[in-house]
Amino acid sequence: MAQLRQEVDPREVGLDAKALERLDRYVARFVDEGRLPGFLMAVSRGGRVAHLTTHGHRDVTAGLPVEPDTLYRIYSMTKPVTSVAALMLVEEGRLSLDDPVSDHLPAFGDQRVYVGGSGAGMETRPVERPIRVRHLMTHTAGLTFAFYHCHPVDALYREAGLESAVLPGSDLAETVEAYARLPLQFEPGTQWNYSVATNVLGRVIEVVSGQPLDAFLAERIFRPLGMTDAGFQVTDEQAGRLAELYGDTDSGGIEPIAGLPLFGRPRFLSGSGGMVATAYDIHRFTELLRRRGELDGTRLLEPGTVDLMASNHLPGGADLREIGSRPAHDEPGNDGVGFGLGVSVVIDPRRTQAPSGLGTYGWSGVATTTFWVDPGRDLTVQFLTQLRPRKSLKLYPELKRLVHEAITD
């Protein structure tokens, strides 16, 4: 079992130790006030871990502390991993970003798009263009989530039993076919709406590769990179290291809540949000990206493919706030941020909510986990905890500001 360790004094890589202490104190306050169970924070520069902090508990009731080898549900941080897997198939010539999804999943061959109305009175029409693989990776496919409660199509997802994005009792193939039976919110490639699209991409990977998604990721990504704990299930050996999942309470505290089942292989393999991983696993993955597709002599992607992944692909070069459908349109954190192939990317640092270098990219998970890669500063950062709040804690802008303040060169 591999474990993340600090490798270098921050000063040796252009980081201010006192500023990093301010970062730790800021986040520790959330734990000490009972608003977070615990956390792990890691900052690496030039591939070397220069700051590693753990604080609080992975299980509050049992009094078990956060350790460097604690295992986390990373939820939507699964999406960049699934996107890398798809890009590997693109490089092999087995898949194209411009393939109509229906070439691989025929259920998407008769797609319709929302025109107006709601419920039984909803009006739809045939799409003018097909959903393509690139639309899945950029969340411009017209798919949605049931829990938004922002659009009449969202309601159809709920009526279809997709409240949690999975058809109860179904596997990935059956769930994706349920998505295909529903109309799109908008014409593919015209708007951005964060959605179930990466689950569809996961199913495309299964069909093209001939392997279940978990087997493909383990064989082609996890084992080659030495991501020894990453996967879609937790073994008996790992169980004691798994962080308890929490939600917030009306009184401002936290309480344990249920997450996706992890003991035993899940029937539904979510390319959108099904993974568990340790800080070491995430460090290996972010290092692959920072090094543009190669790590310790193992190359998974060509440099140009990683550059493509971390470039803005939104129509007209727009940012998420300009082109996003609700609720993205109203989210100030989306100013100056575009979207690449499975990751957000900073396209205008002057407009971002927190200091960010041009081209910084990454993504977050619903349990308040996040990572980012700043190519210009040769920097990678990850923050891990286990809280699914009903409203955002607004942690990320402060994390970015405090990390930014620690850079001395």
Describe this structure in words.
There is one protein chain. The chain has about 400 residues and is α+β, with helices and mostly antiparallel strands. The protein is built from 11 helices and 17 strands. It has helices at about 15-30, 80-90, 135-140, 150-160, 170-180, 195-210, 215-225, 280-290, 305-310, 320-325, 395-405; strands at about 40-45, 50-60, 65, 70-75, 110-115, 125, 245-250, 255, 275, 295, 300, 335-340, 345, 360-365, 370-375, 380-385, 385-390. The strands form 5 sheets. The chain has an 8-stranded antiparallel sheet with strand order 3-2-1-16-15-14-13-12. A 3-stranded mixed sheet has the order 8-7-17, with no helix packed on it. It has a two-stranded antiparallel sheet with strand order 4-9. A hairpin with a 5-residue loop joins strand 7 (about 245-250) and strand 8 (about 255). Helix 2 packs parallel to helix 6 (about 195-210). The longest helix has 16 residues, at about 15-30. The radius of gyration is 20 Å and the shape is globular. The relative contact order is 0.17. The mean pLDDT is about 95.
Strand-helix topology:
Elements lengths: L16 H16 L5 E8 L2 E12 L4 E2 L6 E2 L4 H14 L20 E5 L6 E4 L6 H6 L13 H8 L12 H9 L16 H13 L3 H13 L20 E3 L5 E3 L19 E2 L1 H12 L3 E2 L2 E2 L3 H7 L10 H4 L13 E3 L4 E3 L14 E5 L3 E6 L4 E6 L2 E2 L6 H12 L3
Parallel strand pairs: 7-17
Antiparallel strand pairs: 1-2, 1-16, 2-3, 4-9, 5-6, 7-8, 10-11, 12-13, 13-14, 14-15, 15-16
